[in-house]
Amino acid sequence: MTAPPPSIADLEPLDRLRQQKAWNWYDWANSAFYTTVLSVMFAPYMITVAGKAAGCVDADETCKKSVSVLGLHLAAGSLPSYLTSFATIASAFLLPIVGAFVDRSPRKKLHMAVFAWTGATFAALLFFLRGDHWQLGAVAVVASSILAGCSLVSYYAILVDISTEEERDRASSRGWAWGYLGGGLLLAVNLVMFLAHDTFGLSESMAVRLSLLSAAVWWAAFTVIPFVRLRDYAPRNVVPESGGLLARSFGQLYTTLRGLPQYPMTMTFLIAYLFYNDGIQTVIYTASTYGEKQLGFGTSVLIGTILLIQFVAWGGALFFGRLAERFGSYHSILWGTFAWMGIVLIAMVLPRKNVVLFLLVAIAIGIVMGGTQALSRSFFSLLIPRGREGEYFSLYNAAERGTSWFGTLTFGVVFQLSGSYRPAILALIVFFVLGAVFLLRLDPERGIAEAGNRPPSVV
């Protein structure tokens, strides 16, 4: 009797895991730009430089004198906000075009890397932001912000190529965790250099400029790893269009936008994401203001809190990834929005100068922030028709960027009307309530099936 031939092991899961580990490195790479540059270092330093150009004596955020930008007279203290808003609005229009282009290309990793390296080059120009010469820094931060968004469109689209529906939550959570860890490590080094600049023989200005440069170098250098290790995948289900690549991309974008109502659950999730993500971003953006102005904490406590949130978010992303394996990403995101409501309520009643309670709230923010952001990316990928990942993720990013000012506007208006930051922080609960309302209207199994994807074992 002839023995049966030995079975051949299925090596595809191991191959996908290697690709996912390579993919994670881009989260590690680009997060340095978002944490060190956009979240912490750039805005106050740009206000100082623009303030000198405007003729302010102290050249700080209280400066109300203006600088001229394309014929517009803008207050030096508001310049970083205007630059960020301009980059945000420009991205909202540009990213869908980039997404259509990416979907038609068999070289997604090349597009990701080229956008990243070009963006890092512009970010490196921030090193020359000094004295009263703010113009180069303004161009550099706008260009690098837009290019970072373009690179993420390709990066997110690659996730679908390298993971099955069952693996998506775990892969996305690991990526976010790597991002928080990498961004937090570089930010910690840069904050040490900034706070102890005299010890290192540096001026405060040079410490900031070196920090901005380090983020650009970090971003460019670590992008090499996913560029070398990731494979390219052929585009699938491409919409037939005539003309050159750019013309075909516009045609595919038009077809996608026209057909978007055919996927009502996808649209429902996008609306939910707009609200609860805007709430998340506003809490992060206003936390230092609330801690300093309302609760009376000094710079050292606020800096420590920023770092604590970064590193806790690393564990939060991994924790929510495990939670999604057991209960599904949809339910985990929904529970996350309820947790955000609780955080806002607790933050409103925090007593002044109680460091322990403030840090406990920061830990809660880190856990929920890392988890909800990671699972939002992976869950949305299940609602995208195959071959349209770049376009839909560009809409995901563009929608996020195009409405990300609602929360900060609400915070500012409520503070102006009430004169207190407590009702201002409480007002943000509206965004989480609306996000939860739309999530509750969503049928995840129906949405995944409408997109032509296979529902994971738990949703």
UniProtKB/TrEMBL annotation:
Residues spanning the membrane: 25-47, 82-102, 114-130, 136-158, 178-196, 208-228, 296-320, 332-350, 356-375, 421-440
Keyword terms, alphabetized: Membrane, Transmembrane, Transmembrane helix, Transport
A GO term from the CC aspect: plasma membrane
Domain Major facilitator superfamily (MFS) profile intervals: 265-459
Places the protein is found: Cell membrane
Listed InterPro entries: Atg22-like (IPR024671), ATG22/LtaA_families (IPR050495), MFS_dom (IPR020846), MFS_trans_sf (IPR036259)
GO terms of molecular function: transmembrane transporter activity
Main location: membrane
Domain of life: Bacteria
SUPFAM superfamilies according to UniProt: MFS general substrate transporter
Membrane topology term: Multi-pass membrane protein
Family annotation (PANTHER family): AUTOPHAGY-RELATED PROTEIN 22
Protein name: MFS transporter
Source organism of the structure: Nocardioides pocheonensis
